[in-house]
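Structure representation:
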Amino acid sequence: MEKMSDFKFVIIGSGNISRTYTTVLNKLEGMELVGMVSRSGERPDHINSSVEMGQSIREIENDFDAVILATPNGMHNKGAIEAANLGKHVLTEKPLDITREAMDKMIEACDANNVKLAVAYQRRTNPDNKIIYNLIREGKLGNIFAADMTVKNYRPDSYYESGAWRGTRDIDGGGPFMQQASHNVDLYGWFFGMPSKIISSYGTFTHDIEVEDHGAAILKHGDDMIGTIIASTSAKPGFDGKLEIHSDKGTVVLENDIITSWQIEGMENPSQSAPEEIHSGATSASVSDTSGHENIVKDFVQAIKQDRSPLIDGKSARLATELILEIYENKIS
């Protein structure tokens, strides 16, 4: 039986992450992939023959409602602006982009053309992350004085060799802070806001790339909270991301977006996470659990139909890149 759809997508980019979105659109009711843009023009093996291929969005003849940007980081702005100027809504992979100027132009183009702009920071949809966000906003965790985040991934040389843009400043925009830890940095900013002062140190230790493969930052907030973020692709064999929050009421530890330690006085552990594995990215960029992406895509389509802001719009997602750029710009000598 042919799948019925009332919302049609074109994916721009044919690499690994496009496979994830193809799977998502095949799963979700009422949604259909009708086109894909690939710079090579070649049809990837995960795209069936009914999907129209083109080397430019303007070559796609099928009617469609929105694009999904699955291109490398520094190319998001080009796809977003072109789609917005055609009156198409835009969902982009993280990060929004890698420079302030590019992000601003994306947001301005979507606003000027009255189309939605959403960003796939899907970790915000995970149950325990939403619980912690609300508890912080309600002041129920007490006076938070420290937040320590570690994103100690490992990537072999073959990962960086798999694409000419990987590990480059102009396209990737940086190493693990901008790439692998971007989701985690987004959570940090979502929970605690933008710090007032940052100092950092980072370098390239185990890979032949232009950007860092390991680094650390100390972040000072206006309420005197001290944060730390460590990001790496050199930490063999790769470890699940962790966030430790310390307050005058006790400690909360999240590992891979699940509350694994709850030591808050007078409160029961509120964890609602299911026991199944959530993709951590510790050792691989491949995504097997697409539930987070499904949440983002469903919200994006609902936001368009209801004429409301998406869960993570351009302005909200901009904070993560801004924080990462501040980390890069405030390196100690």
